[in-house]
Q: What sequence folds into this?
């Protein structure tokens, strides 16, 4: 017969064949012949190392434990009763939920790309350009990204959108067309000072398309035809 002593801040989980039979919280000494008791601190959110998966599953069936699976390429952040506790790497994580609420939020830390498309921007010479832009990044500080932003992806998209719009609106159409190949690097130079604030690292950026208004496109085509005709005449 095994003897167990429950203190004021503890509780006992009584298992038989790895199935939860009952919970004891009264401060006293208990004795069991064919069952086993695991004693945990009521404040603990991590399971005891000696607990088996079967025992944890039995607790889960009684709403006393919860598990979270964090895929490869993701990181998690653990909250207990709304308070940050620790960062979690990929894998399966178990937590005790007796008298507490446990929540895990995850974020993708792989290389990702933001597509800022169909942006209609007026240049300084009053030409309405339509641009499509792409920015690649990865999260390097998951805690900052998850705790300081309600919707991290939306916040990062807005940052890229505002930087692109501000830059293009400060240039003429001819300047944008001349800088098309190098525009990505110029915008990265503006974005990179914001990396620490968002907990990320920008990797690459580039202008995918510049779509001109129909009348401007027609004028440019006319000029191009005239230039080619002049070259042919020479």
A:
């Amino acid at each position: 017969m095994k003897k167990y002593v429950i203190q004021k801040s503890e509780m006992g989980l009584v298992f038989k064949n790895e199935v939860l039979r009952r919970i004891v919280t009264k401060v006293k000494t208990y004795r069991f012949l064919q069952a086993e008791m695991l004693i945990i601190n009521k404040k603990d959110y991590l399971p005891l190392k000696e607990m088996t998966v079967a025992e944890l599953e039995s607790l889960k069936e009684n709403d006393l434990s919860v598990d979270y699976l964090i895929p490869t390429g993701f990181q998690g952040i653990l909250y207990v009763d709304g308070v940050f506790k620790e960062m979690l790497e990929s894998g399966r994580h178990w937590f005790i939920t007796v008298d507490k609420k446990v929540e895990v939020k995850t974020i993708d830390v792989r290389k990702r790309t933001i597509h800022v498309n169909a942006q209609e921007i007026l240049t300084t010479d009053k030409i309405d350009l339509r641009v499509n832009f792409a920015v690649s990044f990865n999260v390097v500080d998951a805690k900052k990204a998850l705790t300081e932003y309600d919707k991290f992806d939306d916040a990062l998209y807005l940052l890229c959108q505002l930087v692109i719009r501000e830059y293009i609106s400060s240039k003429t159409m001819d300047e944008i067309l001349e800088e098309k190949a190098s525009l990505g690097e110029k915008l990265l130079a503006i974005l990179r000072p914001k990396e620490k604030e968002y907990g990320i690292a920008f990797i690459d950026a580039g202008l995918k398309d510049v779509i001109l208004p129909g009348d401007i496109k027609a004028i440019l085509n006319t000029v191009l035809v005239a230039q080619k005709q002049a070259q042919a005449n020479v």
Notes: The longest strand covers residues 128-139. The two ends are 109 Å apart (CA to CA). The mean pLDDT is 89. The helical segments are 53-61, 142-147, 152-168, 173-178, 183-191, 195-198, 214-233.
